[in-house]
Write a structure and sequence with these properties.
Helices cover 56% and strands 12% of the residues. The protein is an alpha/beta fold and 341 residues long. It has 2 domains: 179 residues, NAD(P)-binding Rossmann-like Domain (Rossmann fold), CATH 3.40.50.720; 131 residues, no CATH class. Helix 11 packs antiparallel against helix 12. The structure holds NADPH dihydro-nicotinamide-adenine-dinucleotide phosphate and magnesium ion (MG) (2 copies). Belongs to the ketol-acid reductoisomerase family.
């Protein structure tokens, strides 16, 4: 069983005694900054010149500074910019302005695990990674609850890095739900594997192949969309509530029997072999290098993937069908080819 931490295992006064700079005010950044402030922590936000997020942070009454100025004031620097820009922000704006002994805190281990950031020996290097999107991290905190976090220490220069990490995890509400002790290596490798093999890559490809199989066999795309994409949410909700067992308990006996008969035919041993190859590329840094090299070149491969994916017929079918479903929020619907906000 993993080692767990809860509110009683952490001392909030550790982080309340520090000046904290949150760099980036996106999905995670806004949630961390606001939860810290509401937990009585002295927090400022560091953003690049002309940042789109600046007004949002100022409207919350948070002090907004350049990254350099925020870092100069800080005992703890929280790096919550996108992973692909962290190494440049660190090299150009954080490292030259970092106070002696100031700690670095991450929400994901990518840049440390793959050595894109190599911190000074005098810095504590810790991670507090919520297992949910930033908007949930904020909403749960406001409601008096929290999103579980995983917590790691890569470098313990002060001898007190664990106290800092746990105190921070408590301040953002994570220890109300619970914290799991991990390492930067375990967090980074499992996170990348999970999103590639199962959550994003695997699930998207499974849905597309199912849709294509029905449409190519002459069935209507609208019906195929419901069967292969829309209903997935109902199944996943059941899994989250009670595991695969609850999903099988809830569906019809026909569906449950078909699950046992055809699941292993569709996702067979070869798929597991493919997953092992994906994991190997995560572990040996091949994936990280391909991603960062492409980003450094202006992301030509990434943009081409995105464009091609947007042309898949399931997207057009879904866009029309979602208009019929009053309970599905389509108010923000775009072609989603410009990436996340
Ligand atoms: P977002 O893309 O939502 O937010 C990025 C923020 O960084 C924006 O405020 C952006 O400003 C700012 N930014 C971009 N470039 C720079 C720069 N050069 N200098 C200063 N600020 C910059 O990021 P996420 O919150 O998704 O991710 C942050 C970290 O959290 C990552 O390490 C990620 O892996 C991790 N994480 C994310 C989760 C999630 O649910 N999204 C879950 C768990 C961990 P602007 O608005 O101007 O573009
Ligand atoms: Mg991830
Ligand atoms: Mg059915």
């Amino acid at each position: 069983m993993a080692e767990m931490f809860y509110d009683d295992d952490a001392d909030l006064s550790v982080i309340q005694g520090k000046k904290v700079a949150v760099i980036g005010y996106g999905s995670q950044g806004h949630a961390h900054a606001l939860n810290l402030r509401d937990s009585g922590v002295d927090v400022r936000v560091g953003l690049a010149e002309g940042s789109k997020s600046k007004e949002k942070a100022e409207n919350e009454g948070l002090p907004v500074k350049s990254v350099a100025d925020a870092v100069k004031e800080a005992d703890v620097v929280v790096i919550l910019t996108p992973d692909q820009v962290q190494r440049t922000v660190y090299a150009e704006e954080i490292k030259p302005n970092l106070n002696e002994g100031a700690a670095l805190l991450f929400g994901h281990g990518f840049n440390i695990r793959f050595d894109y950031i190599e911190p000074e020996a005098g810095s504590d290097v810790v991670m507090v990674a919520p297992k949910g999107p930033g908007h949930l991290v904020r909403r749960e905190y406001v409601d008096g609850r929290g999103v579980p976090v995983i917590v790691a220490v890569e470098q313990d220069a002060s001898g007190q890095a664990w106290d800092l990490a746990k105190s921070y995890a408590k301040a953002i509400g994570g220890l109300r739900a619970g914290g799991i002790k991990t390492t930067f290596t375990e967090e980074t490798e499992t996170d990348l594997f999970g999103e590639q093999a199962v959550l994003c890559g695997g699930a998207s490809q499974l849905v597309q192949y199912g849709f294509e199989t029905l449409v190519e066999a002459g069935y209507q795309p609208e019906v195929a969309y419901f069967e292969c994409l829309h209903e997935l949410k109902l199944i996943v909700d059941l899994m989250v509530e009670g595991g695969i067992a609850k999903q099988r308990w809830s569906v019809s006996d026909t569906a449950e029997y078909g699950d046992y008969v055809s699941g292993p035919r569709v996702i067979d041993e070869r798929v597991k072999e493919n997953m092992k190859a994906v994991l190997a590329d995560v572990q040996n840094g091949t994936f990280a290098k391909r991603f960062i090299d492409d980003q450094d070149a202006g992301a030509p491969e990434f943009k081409a993937f995105r464009e091609k994916a947007a042309q898949h017929p399931i997207e057009g079918t879904g866009k029309e069908l979602r208009k019929l479903m009053a309970w599905v929020d389509t108010s923000q619907d775009t072609d989603y080819t410009e990436g996340s906000s």
